[in-house]
Write a structure and sequence with these properties.
single chain, alpha/beta, Rossmann fold, 2 domains, five-stranded parallel sheet, four-stranded antiparallel sheet, 8 helices, 12 strands
């Protein structure tokens, strides 16, 4: 069965262009020209991925992205004419899987759609094991993380990032290694997404995120998880 892509943009020419190219690539395409319609279609039709413009006429696209990620766990590629660094960072912080700036190549965007869907479908290995390092326990089969026995609410990407850090506890991991193992070898997005997600993990796991004890920065390399108990 063909996977379904929801394309959200207030420009009809963009909707037509993406619908044509994505259908040509074998996807079923739904379109919406505003945020309210996008949210309604997502709940009614449960698409596999959304290509979402930030600048919408009713609801801000970043808010729509947050709702789609929180309520449905829907992979999202942000599409926007903005090219400022702050917009990209905000998009990454709210959980967007990728970020494409207009004008764009339809072929490249289709490749990014394929890459994000492939990563979303990748099963986690060793599903019945637990990882425990110091005060952190990660249960893979239940998809739960506990800190000092208290349940911690993590997004799917934060869970996979912490899982990779715990599996390699004590080892210095480069940003590129983290991207390859958590986001996938075909990741097209901004490498700084690693820093964004590390910061979010610290906020949820560290008593003082500004002076982390668990997920520490290794100067000139990247990050490592250490047992600080």
């Amino acid at each position: 069965m063909a996977q379904t892509i929801l394309v959200v943009d207030d420009e009809q020419s963009i909707l037509d262009l993406l619908q044509y190219n994505l259908e040509k690539a074998g996807y079923t395409v739904l379109t919406a020209s505003n945020g309210a319609d996008a949210i309604q279609q997502s709940h009614c039709s449960t698409p596999d991925l959304a290509v979402l413009d930030i600048c919408l006429p009713d609801i801000d696209g970043l808010e729509v992205c947050t709702l789609l990620r929180r309520d449905l766990g829907l992979p999202v590629i942000l599409l926007t004419a903005r090219d400022s660094e702050i917009d990209k960072i905000i998009g990454l912080e709210i959980g967007a899987d990728d970020y494409v700036t207009k004008p764009f190549s339809p072929r490249e965007l289709t490749a990014r759609v394929k890459a994000v869907l492939r990563r979303a479908k990748t099963p986690t290995a060793a599903a019945n094991t637990r990882l425990s390092v110091g005060e952190i326990e990660l249960n893979q089969s239940m998809h739960e993380v506990r800190h000092h026995g208290e349940l911690v609410n993590l997004t799917a990407k934060e869970f996979r990032l912490l899982e990779y850090l715990l599996k390699n506890a004590g080892l210095a991991l480069s940003r590129h290694a983290i991207l390859d193992h958590v986001w996938g070898y075909d990741f097209y997005g901004d490498p700084r997404t690693v820093d964004v997600h590390i910061r979010r993990l610290r906020e949820k796991l560290e008593s003082d995120p500004g002076a982390p004890r668990l997920i520490v920065t290794v100067s000139g390399v990247g990050y490592k998880f250490q047992n600080a108990s």
